[in-house]
Each structure stands twice: as C-alpha cells, then as structure tokens.
Amino acid sequence: MDQRREIINLVLKCALICSTIIIVWKTLILLTNCASPMIISLNGEQPDFRGLGDILVLTNYDSASVQACDLVVFRIEGRDIPIVHRVIKVRAKKDGYFKILTKGYMNVVDDRGLYPSGQLWIEKKDVIGKVYGYVQSAIFRFSYC
C-alpha cells in the first residue's frame, strides 16, 4: 500500500511539472502573439546576441511594424530551420501587409539567393517574429570552451 502511494505521488508530481511547463509556454504565446515565442540561435554571427545557444525572445504584434535594421526570424518555403537576419528594406502598405528584404550579418549581398526561385521579398506570412531580446546560454559557453 505504501509503495503504491509513492508511485501515485510520483506520477502526480510529474503531471504537475508537465502542466506547469505547458501553462508557461501557452502564456508566453499569448503575451508575445507569436507561435514560437523563443528560439535557440544555431550560430553566433550576429553581433546583437553573443552566439551559439542563445535564446532569442520573439514578438509578432500586428501593431508593431517591421522596420529596416530590425532582426526578424523567418521561414523559407521548403526549409525546416528558421533564419535570423536583419531587415535592410521594407515595402509596407497601409493595411498592415508588408514585404521585407533581409541580409545576414556576414553576407556581402542580400538574401535573395536564399529565397525560392522567382521570390524577391519575404512576405508577412513568412515572418515568424521580430527579435525582442535574448538570453545568453551559459551551458553552451562551457561546453565549447
């Protein structure tokens, strides 16, 4: 009987931890208006955040316009991994629709070579979010020293 009670206690604690994580994640989605409120940087070429493993906090508010020099996260059709690059040109309309042209920090030319054939701009539907801030990851710092 005592062992059974311990197992039930353990299962309830695990369920509490899992539900807390889900509640925090869904709250972040609501607060940032972004389906992916946080992503992890896979390289360290941007000078705005330090490097590999940094957690980028994203927002995607309709009222917040995307401007040149903003860091945005976007997904290219046919590719699984989102890209974080700086906006260099914006074509915005009054109804909130926009198209942007991006460029990587270390790249000499803009990102049109990354876009699918015939596509010259990233559209609003391709943008996952705008980088609001970042959290440095000490875990990756120690593992790559």
From TrEMBL:
Q: Which domain of life is it from?
A: Eukaryota
Alphabetical GO biological process terms: signal peptide processing
This chain belongs to the protein called: Signal peptidase complex catalytic subunit SEC11
**Predominant subcellular localization, coarse grouping:** endoplasmic reticulum
Query: Where does this one sit in the cell?
Result: Endoplasmic reticulum membrane
Q: What does this protein do?
A: Catalytic component of the signal peptidase complex (SPC) which catalyzes the cleavage of N-terminal signal sequences from nascent proteins as they are translocated into the lumen of the endoplasmic reticulum. Specifically cleaves N-terminal signal peptides that contain a hydrophobic alpha-helix (h-region) shorter than 18-20 amino acids.
Coiled-coil annotation reads: none
Lineage of the source organism?
Eukaryota, Metazoa, Spiralia, Gnathifera, Rotifera
Plastid as UniProt keyword: no
Q: Does the keyword rRNA processing apply?
A: no
Q: What species was this sequence derived from?
A: Rotaria socialis
Provide a GO CC annotation, any one.
signal peptidase complex
Concerning InterPro entries, the annotation shows:
Peptidase_S26 (IPR019533), Peptidase_S26B (IPR001733)
Q: How does it sit in the membrane?
A: Single-pass type II membrane protein
Gene Ontology terms for molecular function: serine-type endopeptidase activity
Q: Which residues cross the membrane?
A: 7-31
Q: Which UniProt keywords apply?
A: Membrane, Transmembrane, Transmembrane helix
